[in-house]
Write a structure and sequence with these properties.
The protein is mainly alpha-helical and about 1150 residues long. It contains 48 helices and 4 strands. Helix 10 runs antiparallel to helix 12, helix 37 packs parallel to helix 39 and helix 46 packs across helix 48.
């Protein structure tokens, strides 16, 4: 394996050590023993092999020969190796990807540790190998080559850790020797053995010498490597240093656990890199976990405690988790160190969205507040069951913390945070329910509500095993053991709560806030236990309480919870289904009879008092909630509700609180009827035709009712009608026959134009309104504004779905798109998604809608303000911003959108000149300022398209009879956006602005005009942009483009770019971007392609995008008459693209 003693000096050392460590298959101890045998045979060759092992581990292909080792110093050897270092790739063994290098670092460290371990009784104190190795590693750790520095620092710190273990063993041996010596000396003169005393003294002297040598090596490594590398620029090196010094302090605390060493960890707590801060916290946690060491950490704690507390709010979750765990250890082992203010910095974290962080904070909270009062006593190593009094104390403390801290509104997140450390207490449902049911507990209303929420949250957590909504776990599923525990907990909670749930409902039946969560408990029960445990009597009691609750309350939350609970029990597979179905029929009969009676009174009487109105509205709400979860078709509620709504629309005498649930009832009736028809239509093709026509009639009649309600006085009636209309129109759209349901074709309904316009008008009046500014978000007024915003977003989403699914004409999207910029913060995501879907449906039509939106806004502003000074108004500036956002929505596919953008410009030019000024007036056309909006789309044009549009604009301007004496401002602005030149030199024909003449050789203006005149009538753009004729790859010297900023500000011509100095990489990349031209032949090399692909990712930044497109206008278009000499700029020169420019 290793070289023999007679190997030639000129031959480089073998790489067997490196290959064996890389493979990580052989026993490390035998590998070191073989090297030791080789070293004993030939010390120089053996040590040289070890040196070359470390050099190869750095990724260096160079080797150290015997001649180099004898004649050159360490610094010269390192300089020589640096020159031979292969820097083609930034990877080296410690960072190289791939499975072969995955275990290299662990194997490398294991080799160093084993080397020290096998040498600790002899070779370690030889002087030659270790001193020279430490000297070499110290020199390499100071190298500018990252691979040398990283690998040698890892080796030096691992070597240091191994030496610390050896020093610790020497210290133990010295103590043992000292005790032996003292014991021998304390013997009487007759029993004392002088030879043994002498041998013990010699052994002590030997141990002392060895310890001094080890301390000298450690001191050299610490001062030569650690002191310089703990603040290295590379975070991996800093992390290695901090991790190892933490090991030294834990294993050999007598020497290293001093303030002179602790300060390095304290300083590094402020490191900007996540991994380094994490290593600091883990090292400190190991120190604070040992109670024997805490007394020596007091000064450090007082100096750096504030920093450790502040790291609870670290932006990296894993660092924050470790900081909370560290504070928990300090709380356990150092009493009184953390003040109340320090603890209050941790308390809010129990409501964090990251579950690991919240769980760590929950453990801190448990040890701070709950453990001292609710300590679980252990007897003979086993935890004793807590007394009922201790359990109640736990829940009272939990209540007190949640209510008094006022940090959050939902106790479910607190329960989840405490679940890992206090799950057994939280699953003590006996104590929870006894607290709720006992009369003498003196709990306040808020405390009772909170305790019920804690009960429901703990039941949900035990039954489902996942955290509340919005809290991230990172876990994919439960282990088999966790699933078994979850199943057992579900059975236990069901058996305990089934008998008590009717009692809880009976006690809190008058309070809607408490009854609703109690009814939700049924979601987490194993309902089969009603049958298997013979608990039907408790089911009867529950059904009685449920009926009382439904009859007593009209709050939506209570009614929805009750209807869903009854739905869970109405499963035909349960043996008690008939009993539950009978109870449901009784309840619905009761509500229906009451509704029929109250309805007749309303229809016959011209006046109802408040109590009668409230009673009717409450009955309708109850029926509506149950119709949502249960099929109530056989009670035939459609006709009476329709009569009620018809009277409301015709006379306006029906109160609004009655109309709202009546609308919902009719809506559910139609949906349940559709469900029956859909299920039976395929099997019975004849009979459903009558049902289909009846359903279609009901649906159309209801849509007419809702359309009439859109103009109601009450906004809540309007919004409800709009929501129901949106849903029904979507359900009965052409999508309903997809999937083999063609028999439902007669039900397809298309809204009339009047209904479409009313829906759009409702949107303008109720959605696109300017709300007030939100405050801090904590006041009641702010909460109300947020709820209103959510409601408006729901309304807009319903309208946009009608557009996307073809229910409404796509042109109606202009009413939405024109508010894209103004309401971007409120509805930007919805409108952007609608715009994307509309473009997927029809790209050309979508582009026309964008233009239509701008036309509508412009016309509205023109009618309000008049044509004078229009482009200086704030509303017009907002329109320009909207046009810019529309232009950005086309994305980077310039060639794909080429015809669409040209069409948009052409239609925009027609609109701007569609109305002429009054006869005899010298003013400009009223719509002419629209050209300024159109100029925002100019960066999306190809160069040749700009020339054609300039010619088209000139022709359109010739038809204007009134010619101003000077160019119109909007025309000049638009021409400037189409011009290849940056300055606005005016070249006019008969007083009209037109395209500017270039100052380089090229086709004559007359010839260009001939080309333009042949194409201006029909801009059919089916050809690709021609390939530039020059594709030079010559290496050019990069020169700075001096004065570029001044030229961009003052407006330089294109010739100043093409005939001036060479462009830098960034500037040339803007010209070479694939967004601005496509080359069908001679594609560039892979390097250029990769870098141009990176350029495509820069489209998100609007300002950079705008600059990029402005620059793209300046590359010269070479038509079929141009010669290669006309190109002042090589478009495909890839040599000046540098990745550092990006």
């Amino acid at each position: 394996m290793v070289r023999g003693h007679g190997q030639k000096e000129s031959e480089p050392p073998a790489s067997d050590l490196f290959d064996a460590v890389k493979a990580a298959k052989s026993d490390m101890q035998s590998l070191v023993d073989e090297w030791l045998d080789s070293y004993k045979q030939d010390q120089d060759a053996g040590f040289l092999e070890l040196v070359n092992f470390f050099i190869q581990s750095c990724g260096c292909k160079g080797t150290v020969t015997q001649e180099m080792f004898r004649k050159m110093s360490n610094s010269e050897i390192i300089r020589h190796l640096t020159e031979q270092f292969n820097e083609d790739s930034g990877d080296y063994p410690l960072t190289a990807p791939g499975p072969s290098w995955k275990k290299f670092q662990g194997s490398f460290c294991e080799f160093v540790r084993t080397l020290v371990f096998r040498c600790q009784y002899g070779l370690l104190y030889d002087g030659f190998p270790m001193d020279n190795l430490i000297s070499l590693l110290t020199g390499l750790s100071d190298s500018q080559v990252r691979a040398f520095r990283h690998t040698s620092t890892l080796a030096a710190m691992t070597l240091m850790t191994s030496l610390v273990r050896v020093a610790l063993q020497l210290s133990v041996h010295k103590d043992y020797n000292h005790r032996q010596y003292e014991a021998e000396r304390s013997k009487g003169p007759g029993q004392r053995a002088p030879e043994r005393l002498e041998s013990l003294l010699e052994k002590r002297k030997e141990l002392q010498e060895h310890q001094e040598e080890i301390e000298g090596m450690m001191n050299a490594l610490f001062r030569g490597v650690f002191v310089h590398r703990y603040r290295d620029v590379l975070p991996e090196i800093r992390a290695i240093c901090i991790e190892e010094i933490g090991c030294w302090m834990q294993s050999y605390s007598t020497s290293f656990l001093t303030d002179s060493y602790l300060k390095y960890i304290g300083w590094t707590l402020h490191d900007k890199h996540r991994e380094v801060r994490l290593k600091c916290l883990k090292a400190l946690k190991g120190l604070y976990s040992n109670q024997d060491l805490t007394a020596r950490l007091e000064l450090f704690t007082s100096r750096f405690k504030d920093r450790m507390v502040s790291m609870v709010m670290d932006r990296e979750y894993d660092v924050a988790v470790e900081a909370v765990k560290l504070l928990t250890v300090i709380l356990k082992n150092m009493e009184g160190v953390l003040t109340d203010a320090d603890c209050e910095s941790v308390y809010p974290v129990v409501y964090a969205s990251n579950r690991a962080l919240a769980s760590a904070a929950g453990e801190f909270l448990y040890w701070k507040l709950f453990y001292p009062e609710c300590e679980t006593r252990t007897v003979d190593g086993k935890e004793q069951r807590q007394s009922p009094r201790s359990q109640r104390t736990f829940f009272r403390l939990l209540l007190s913390f949640f209510v008094e801290s006022e940090l959050h509104d939902h106790a479910a997140y607190l329960v989840d945070s405490l679940w890992d450390c206090a799950g057994s207490q939280l699953k003590n449902w006996e104590s929870l329910t006894s607290l709720l049911l006992e009369k003498d507990q003196n709990l306040g209303d808020v405390q009772e509500s909170t305790l019920i929420e804690i009960l429901v949250s703990s039941v949900q957590q035990a039954s489902e095993g996942h955290p509340p909504v919005g809290r991230v776990t990172g876990r994919k599923g439960l282990t088999p053991k966790e699933r078994k525990i979850q199943a057992n907990d579900k059975v236990k909670l069901t058996e305990h709560l089934i008998p008590l749930l009717p009692q809880l409902l009976a006690k809190f039946s008058a309070d809607a806030e408490k009854v609703a969560p109690l009814l939700q408990l049924l979601n987490y029960f194993d309902l089969n236990i009603y049958c298997t445990r013979r608990l039907e009597k408790h089911l009867e009691l529950f059904l009685q309480q449920l009926q009382e609750v439904v009859v007593k309350h009209a709050e939506p939350a209570v009614l929805e919870a009750g209807a869903h609970a009854l739905y869970l029990l109405c499963n035909p597979e349960f043996t008690f289904f008939s009993r539950v179905d009978f109870a449901r029929s009784q309840l619905v009969d009761l509500l229906t009879d009451r509704f029929q009676q109250e309805l007749e009174e309303l229809l016959q009487s011209s006046f109802l008092d408040e109590d009668e109105v409230y009673s009717l509205a409450a009955t309708l709400k109850r029926l509506s909630a149950f119709y949502n979860a249960h099929d109530l078709t056989r009670w035939e509620l459609y006709e009476p509700c329709y009569r009620l709504l018809r009277k409301a629309v015709d006379t306006g005498e029906v109160p609004h609180q009655v109309m709202l649930p009546a609308l919902t009832l009719v809506y559910f009736s139609i949906l349940w009827t559709l469900t029956h028809v859909s299920g039976s239509g395929a099997s019975q093709p004849l009979s459903p035709q009558k049902q289909l026509m009846s359903l279609k009639g009901r649906m159309v009649a209801f849509c007419e009712l809702c359309q009439s309600c859109l103009s109601d006085v009450a906004p809540e009636i309007q919004e409800q009608a709009f929501v129901l209309l949106s849903d029904l129109l979507l359900i009965f759209s052409p999508q309903m026959i997809v999937g083999g349901r063609d028999f439902l074709r007669p039900l397809v309904f298309f809204p009339e134009a009047t209904l479409q316009s009313e829906l759009a008008s409702f949107l303008m009046d109720h959605v696109f309104i300017q709300p007030g500014e939100l405050g801090s978000g904590h006041s009641q007024e702010d909460h109300l504004k947020i709820e209103q915003l959510h409601q408006r977003r729901r309304l807009l989403a319903g309208f946009c779905k009608l557009l996307i699914y073809g229910v409404l004409e796509l042109d109606a999207a202009s009413d939405v798109f024109k508010h894209y910029n103004k309401f971007y913060n409120d509805y930007g995501d919805i409108i952007k998604e609608t715009l994307t879907r509309a473009r997927q449906i029809d790209r050309s039509h979508c582009s026309r809608i964008l233009l239509l939106s701008l036309k509508q806004l412009y016309t509205e502003l023109l009618q309000e303000q008049g044509p004078e000074g229009l482009n200086e108004l704030p509303a017009f500036i907002e329109m320009r911003d909207l046009a810019r956002r529309f232009a950005l929505s086309f994305g980077p596919q310039q060639l794909q959108n080429r015809d669409l953008v040209v069409m948009l410009h052409k239609e925009g030019i027609k609109f701007s000149l569609s109305e002429l000024p009054a006869a005899g007036s010298s003013g400009q056309p009223p719509n002419l300022a629209f050209l300024e909006l159109l100029s925002e789309f100019s960066p999306r044009l190809f160069h040749q398209d700009k020339q054609l549009l300039l010619s088209y604009l000139e022709k359109c301007l010739q038809d204007v009879s009134q010619a101003p004496g000077h160019p119109w401002g909007p025309v000049t602005t638009y021409c400037h956006s189409l011009s290849p030149m940056e300055n606005t030199a005016e070249a006019s024909l008969q007083g009209y602005p037109r395209s500017k003449k270039r100052r380089i050789e090229g086709p004559s203006r007359r010839h260009r005009e001939d080309i333009s005149s042949s194409q201006e009538e029909s801009l059919q753009l089916t050809s690709m942009p021609p390939t530039p004729t020059l594709t030079s790859t010559a290496v050019k010297t990069r020169q700075p483009l001096g004065g570029l900023e001044e030229m961009e500000e003052e407006g330089g011509s294109e010739s100043e770019f093409t005939q001036g100095q060479p462009l830098s990489g960034t500037q040339r990349s803007e010209f070479s971007s694939p967004h601005h031209f496509r080359i069908p032949l001679n594609p560039p090399g892979p390097d250029l392609g990769n870098q141009l692909t990176r350029l495509s990712l820069m489209e998100e930044d609007e300002e950079e995008l705008e600059i990029q497109h402005e620059s793209s206008e300046e590359w010269q278009y070479t038509n079929k008459h141009s010669s290669p000499s006309e190109h002042g700029l090589d478009l495909l020169d890839s040599t000046e693209l540098n990745i550092e420019d990006f």
